[in-house]
What we know:
Helix 1 runs parallel beside helix 8, helix 5 runs antiparallel to helix 6 (90-106) and helix 5 (73-87) runs parallel beside helix 12 (248-295). The chain has helices spanning 5-16, 23-35, 39-42, 57-62, 73-87, 90-106, 137-145, 149-163, 170-177, 182-191, 195-222, 248-295, 304-307, and strands at residues 44-46, 49-51. It is mostly helical and 312 residues long.
Amino acid sequence: MSWAAHELESYFIQKHTKVSVSYLAILIGCLLPDMLTKLPVYGINIGNLALLKAAVPYQYHRGWPGVGFTHTLLFGLLVAALVFRFTGSREWFLGLLLGQWAHALTDVFDSVGTMVFFPFTTQHYTTGMWAYAAQQGRYGDAAAYYSSLGGIWDLFWLAMALTGFRVLSKTYFFRTVVPADPAWGWLRRRFRLSPTAMLALYRAFFLYGACRAISWFLWARFVDHAPLDLRWGGPYWVDKVVLPAQSWQSYLENSLVGITGVALTCYLAWRFILRRWWREAGDRRLRVVGVAEAIDVPAAGSDPAAANPSDA
Length: 312
């Protein structure tokens, strides 16, 4: 699993998506698979008492039976479609889909991986780049992750976010992020947020991800004194979870079934459901813009702060 990459990759995805997309939806999508499932992985520890802890963390978190379906492509499609149905927002549909898919594919890099093509196959896909060590508890997992290529992975996403540092600028936020998502206008009105508070909220997730990656890396080095092992599959000293080996024939057969099933499901969902919703969303947008132009007021979803970023 990734510790900070899911917060940091949301900025990169938003910046490089060439169509209008909600940053908030991308962020929620990136966090979604772990949002309601992560607590039992480590449990709640009170002294020697462990509460709500899964008997086999990796099976619960990534497997079936378990909640491993939250780390699959079709789970992202299902959640994004449900939100699309009730909001009619193309930006939120795309954002949730991209964010959740990014999370599911990012977690492929540890030694357990994810069931990307579930429910058509329970085959796990993994590169084995670093050890899955949630069974060691929160601190044991952190020590293993930040003593291996997992920590480098988080620092890589931090570097990627910093190379596009303009996404954190006031101008980019008010001219690109806010106009793409009416949720910012709702947050501003509902909680009486000033433009400065909105910008701070937007930047907060980057700060949280960056501080989390750096502080845990330093903790592993100077507090826990965990040996650093940057070899593939490390660290050598942790009792990592490795799934049973299988034949290439079985692997390829499962992959063929899974890819075909997911691709066909996505096509049918678009052909018979999503395409109609997409057109209806576009028609609603045209009507709103037309009415707004006729009475000379800002279109729905626009925000006065976006027109004057200097106010922030």
